[in-house]
Amino acid sequence: MTAHEQWKQNTSDPLGLGDLGTIEPGYDGWDQVESALQNHHDGQQRWRRLGSWMAVAASLVLVISITLRNTENQISTKPSTPEFATSVTKFASVPVQDNIKALIGMSQNMEQQVKKLRQKSSSMPAEFAIYVAELEDLIAQVDNELSLAPDSIDLWGQRVNLMLDLAQIYQQQWQIDYGRMASL
Amino acid sequence: MMMGSGFDIDLDEVTLAGAKRGDMRACEKIYRKFHRQAFTLASRICKNRELAQDVTQEAFITAFRRMHQYRGESPFWGWLRRVIVNHAISALRKLPRHEAIELEDYMVTSSAGQERLGQCMDLEQALTQLSDEDRIVVWLHDVEGYKHREIAKLVGKSESYSKTRLNRARGKLRALISECDQQPLQNMTHDTTLSATV
After folding, report:
1. How many CB pairs under 8 A join A and B?
2. A182 and A128 in contact (C-beta within 8 Å)?
3. Are B130 and B77 members of one domain?
4. What angle do CA A91, A96, A99 make, to 5 degrees?
5. Pairwise CA distance, residues B122 & B116, whole Å
6. Does B66 contact chain A (CB < 8 Å)?
7. Which range scores top for mean pLDDT: A56-70, A152-166, B174-188?
8. Residue B4 falls within a domain, yes or no?
9. pLDDT of the residue at A93
10. Cβ distance A173 to A121 under 8 Å?
11. What is the pLDDT of residue B101?
């Protein structure tokens, strides 16, 4: 060490605190750190999977709604000559039935997702709880209407959209819970 | 030149890149390289072993989760050290005021240190007698080489506050050590449970 370095060290650390050296931790602790990181990665992956699944579901609903609207427009704008109307109805009935099946499947999947999220979430703030209650009321209303018109593609589309909204609220709450847990 | 806490350890790019990708082996390598230094720094700031353990673990978890925020403009050890310091200061702020800390809790791991404990108030013990802010300022400035501007930012005060604290802390440390030197050894009891206030 040069005289200048010596002088510099003396002025910056005149009491020699730097000579106290390091302290032996006496524990390893890596397992806890690894476990916390693993939980974090798992949570992120779950979040990404759920998010992408919901994005796919939302896109499907959009595509189905557009298809439905186009089909309805085609039916309503065509002249009502018997031969032509019949052929259009035959053409439209196949995709409409498929779409209903797809929407019912999506609705069932969403039910399961919401059930899982509901189990994971802790108590939620009043504001969230009000939204949840409102959405559940709306879903009940749609279910009532579906009992009268079980093949209504419009109603099934509404039900899936409402379920998506509901899942989003639970997902947000779950994310808040997870963030809280991770910060502990 | 090696700093007091020995934090200035170089890290290879491969390990850094691996940790940024979330590779656990790379993270473990970093943890093992810096664990002791991180614990030392946390202990010096918190002066409580259990709290220092918690701070060290939390800080490493935070650092690994936020590895993507490290841009590589300055050495990695400097970035990691800042994470540890922030966590330690934040942990101290969460503690209730005037919490009694037993000197028994204080760590002296070297054999020479074990012998000294209970015989005389050495520099290490004198350090624990300082208030939190005095201790933070004197350690970060004198040992870690932080500038007053940086310390002021960390503790949320002005540069002149940091300078005043440093002078006060050094003066108090000198007084505590010389006080000890003037006392005969037989008058120093083996009372290791002498409590200090934070």
Report:
1. 90
2. no
3. no
4. 140
5. 8
6. no
7. A152-166
8. no
9. 53
10. yes
11. 45
Domain-wise residue ranges, chain A: 33-183
Chain B: give the shortest CA distance to residue A144, in Å.
48
Domain match, B117 and B189 both: yes
What is the pLDDT at residue A8?
A: 55
Q: Do B4 and A27 touch (CB under 8 A)?
A: no
The number of domains in chain B is: 2
Q: pLDDT tens digits for A71-92?
A: 656 655 555 445 444 444 444 4
Residue A60: exposure state from Cβ atoms within 10 A (0-12, 13-18, ≥19): middle
A137-167 pLDDT, tens per residue?
A: 888 888 888 887 888 888 888 888 888 888 8
Q: Does B139 lie in the same domain as B83?
A: no
Identify the CATH number of the domain in which residue B152 sits. 1.10.10.10
Q: Are residues B87 and B128 in the same domain?
A: no
Banded pLDDT at B152 (limits 50, 70, 90):
very high
Determine contact: A20 vs chain B, CB below 8 A.
yes
Range of the domain at B123: 111-197
Answer yes or no: do B117 and B145 share one domain: yes
In a domain, B67, yes or no: yes
Mean pLDDT, to the nearest integer, of B117-135?
78
Task: Identify residue A52 by its one-letter amino acid code.
Answer: S
Would residue B36 count as lying in a domain?
A: yes
Domain annotation covers residue B45: yes
Query: Is the ipTM, as predicted for this complex, more than 0.95?
Result: no
Note whether B142 and A15 are within 8 A (CB): yes
